[in-house]
Design a protein that fits this description.
- By secondary structure, the chain is α+β, with helices and mostly antiparallel strands.
- About 45% of the residues lie in helices and about 10% in strands.
- It has a 4-stranded antiparallel β-sheet with strand order 3-4-6-5. A two-stranded antiparallel ribbon has the order 1-2.
- The radius of gyration is 29 Å and the shape is elongated.
């Protein structure tokens, strides 16, 4: 027998092997001479926050594995009370992980209100493991191999990357062209953030830095830097100047950082220094890697 703690109410001892199974435990009746625990009297489960979170994950996982489910089905499946399941469902609905739906009835419908089922939302599905990164890498590998591999294969992947960015650049160009010349980098950062890149722009001693704190294609870009190179080329075209990629998430850095030098947006930027054109080429070729 394991000992139980004494005090105001008696709490059920949970052996270590049951700590993380997510089953909600209730306090038993108080021993004689002790006041009953208010939580036990009200039927509120006595569980730590991490246990509640674990149980909530089990509810969501059960819906993922078995499809839209009623509270009764989930309670039976997870060996919980319907009241406990409903509390977790309320939280999951509030967090946008699941949504209530009317249960589809096949054949003759009985009397009374149809049972409510709970289904995962797109946001809820995204919380579980996805194979999008693997799919993207497989698709790029197929493009590379179909072109014959080698230099031809790399060129084919680069052509795909440019075509992909061309579609995104339409919205970016509208945002940049609508902004004042001095705030175009900031406008580009806002357009990138709308696409999930969490981008910001900040001043630098001799220019500006465009920082992307998230990269949706980082894992694919780690294998195929042509994705970063195409993005760098698009930034250069949109801002009307050469740019230099200083760091990338795909390379292992914490942030994708692109340097945009100060320019007077006149022809002098192209004629003052013959090395300008070389810088543009170098910027594209080093995209996805830290410059040496």
């Amino acid at each position: 027998m394991h000992p139980t703690s004494e005090g105001v109410g008696r709490r059920l001892y949970v052996p270590p092997e049951l700590r993380n199974n997510g089953v909600v435990k209730y306090a038993s009746e108080a021993p004689k001479g002790h006041a009953a625990d208010p939580a036990a009297r009200s039927g509120v489960p006595v569980s730590a926050p991490d246990e509640q979170h674990g149980t909530r994950n089990r509810v969501a996982r059960s819906i993922l594995d078995h499809g839209p489910s009623t509270a009764a089905e989930l309670a039976l499946r997870l060996e919980l009370t319907q009241a406990a399941v409903r509390r977790h469902l309320d939280t999951l609905v509030a967090d946008g992980v699941v949504e209530p739906r009317e249960k589809r009835v096949y054949g003759a419908r009985g009397r009374g209100r149809p049972a409510k089922v709970f289904a995962l939302t797109d946001c809820g599905r995204d919380a579980f493991d996805q194979a999008y990164d693997s799919l993207a890498v497989d698709a790029l590998r197929w493009i590379e191999q179909s072109a014959g591999g080698g230099e031809a294969g790399r060129a084919a992947v680069a052509a795909f990357a440019r075509a992909r960015l061309a579609g995104q650049a339409v919205a970016y160009r509208s945002a940049v062209e609508a902004a004042d010349p001095g705030s175009r980098t900031q406008a580009l950062a806002g357009a990138l953030s709308a696409d999930g890149y969490a981008a910001t722009a900040r001043s630098a001693p001799v220019g500006e830095q465009l920082c992307q704190h998230h990269c949706p294609v980082a894992h694919a870009a780690e294998r195929y830097p042509q994705l970063c190179e195409a993005e760098t080329e698009v930034f250069s075209q949109l801002l009307g100047t050469h740019v230099q990629r200083l760091a990338t998430i795909a390379h292992g850095d914490g942030v994708c950082t692109t340097f945009i030098p100060k320019t007077d947006r006149t022809a002098s930027a192209e004629t003052a220094d013959p090395s300008t054109s070389k810088t543009t080429t170098a910027s594209a070729s080093t995209a996805g890697r830290n410059p040496v």
